Amino acid sequence: MRLAADTLERSKASGQFHSVKGTLVEWIGHLTGATSWQKSGRDEHTAGEAEIQAAEVAGYLQGTLDRAQGKVDAVVGAVTGDKARQIEGNLRHDKGKADQEANGPA
């Protein structure tokens, strides 16, 4: 199953939004002394960070699959003389590598 890049980006953006919102709510809770806001903000921040990490893992795994399948297609294309398949395989491999680098550990 191929995860669409826009789905992963929306998930990352949603996670970032909730992370920042949670931090702000927690900060307001500290300013006002409202412990329920502090806890609520901390929980939302944590959930946002988890959503970001899940999207990065999914992107990295998809990159790994693309990289492997691209290598297979490139080799099969080279062996059979199918230049189009070889080129498409190389492009998929390179895209997979870029996805891994974009979503890999910092």
UniProtKB/TrEMBL annotation:
Biased composition (Basic and acidic residues): 83-100
Protein name per the record: CsbD-like domain-containing protein
Region (Disordered): 83-106
